[in-house]
Amino acid sequence: MSNASGTLFVVATPIGNLQDLSPRAGAVLREVAVVAAEDTRHSRKLLQHLGATPRCLSLHRHNESRRTSELLALIEAGQSVALISDAGTPLISDPGSALVRAALDAGVPVVPVPGPSALSAALSVCGLATERFAFEGFLPARAAARRARLLELVNEPRTLVFFEAPHRIADCIAAMAQAFGLTRRALVARELTKVYETLQSAGLGELAASYAAGDAPARGEFVVVVEGNPQPAPATQLDAESVLRALLQELPPARAARLAARLTSSSRQQLYARALALAGEQE
Predict the structure, then answer these.
(1) CA pair distance 199, 189, nearest whole angstrom
(2) Hey, CA dihedral for 47, 52, 56, 60, is it positive or negative?
(3) Which burial class, exposed, middle or buried, applies to 6 when counting CB atoms under 10 A from its CB (0-12, 13-18, 19+)?
(4) Cα–Cα distances in Å, from 259 out to 30, 235, 247, 251, 275?
(5) How would DSSP label each residue in 108-126?
(6) Which terminus of the chain is more solvent-facing, meaning fewer CB atoms within 10 Å of its CB: N or C?
């Protein structure tokens, strides 16, 4: 590394297996003055493994706004900073976008140091079409909002990728089976690159039954990849979402959904679920 001074490095770190850390990433982490980490306690273990001794500052969703200006000032003063997340590539469902945007706006050099990513790892072994895909991150925790979001994706032709927490994985797969159909193929990737890594590829109905019966382990970190809809419904002349939002200003959810379905030839069930989600956002 010729001159790291005054540069923001966005560094991918292992998602489990430490051997996945690239030599370049290791060199950057050993040479920068400051590491901005989602959880400094977690990241110090990696830094100690590398023999790296930079100053560590936390950068998470609760302090990102305040910390961004501090880190940018350090970079502009000539110190190099490495942005890392707890695991994988920063900004993929992790904090850091405010810092990167501020650095770009300030004309500060921003350098990606690519490497491990649970998103790309799962896609590489899913056995589904990967020419085009849509990353949805974490679904809403509440059942009604989760179902509404899934119903919005029913006609999505691209392969879909989700992250999910262990305590919600069974409910997540069950909701997907209900929304997308039992035969829609999916891959559940658990603990990627770790000792207990498992891959389950099957129809959503079979996967849901496995989790409901307790046959599938519900511990660890999960990536769910779902086949896109091979035969999406044709677009309607009127945009159902816009019609529904307009009607909700005057009508309760059930009546708004019924009328929007009639006007757009869309599913009343899907529109009602979406109406409930929108009404909840306004509360």
Answers:
(1) 5
(2) negative
(3) middle
(4) 62, 18, 8, 10, 12
(5) --EEEE----HHHHHHHTS
(6) C
Residue 167 near residue 174, CB atoms below 8 Å? no
> Which runs of E-coded beta strand occur in 174-213?
185-190, 198-203
The pTM of the full predicted model, rounded to 2 decimals, is: 0.80
Local structure of residue 45 (DSSP, 8 states): H
Q: Which two tokens stand for residue 95?
A: 């904090």
What are the C-alpha distances in Å from 83 to residues 16, 72, 163? 18, 12, 21
Q: Give CA–CA dist 24/111, Å, rounded.
A: 12
pLDDT digits (tens, 9 = 90+) for 130-183: 999 999 999 999 988 898 889 889 889 999 999 999 999 999 999 999 999 999
Q: What is the pLDDT of residues 52-101, one digit of tens each?
A: 999 999 999 899 989 999 999 999 999 999 999 999 999 999 999 999 99
Query: If you count them, how many residues does the chain have?
Result: 283
* Cβ atoms of 268 and 247 closer than 8 Å: no
What is the rounded CA–CA span in Å between residue 21 and residue 46? 10
Name the DSSP class of 19: G
Please state, in angstroms and rounded to a whole number, the distance separating the CA atoms of residues 189 and 273: 28
Separation of alpha carbons 187 and 127, rounded Å: 8
CA 207 to each of CA 43, 63, 174: distance values in angstroms, whole numbers, following the listed order = 34, 38, 8
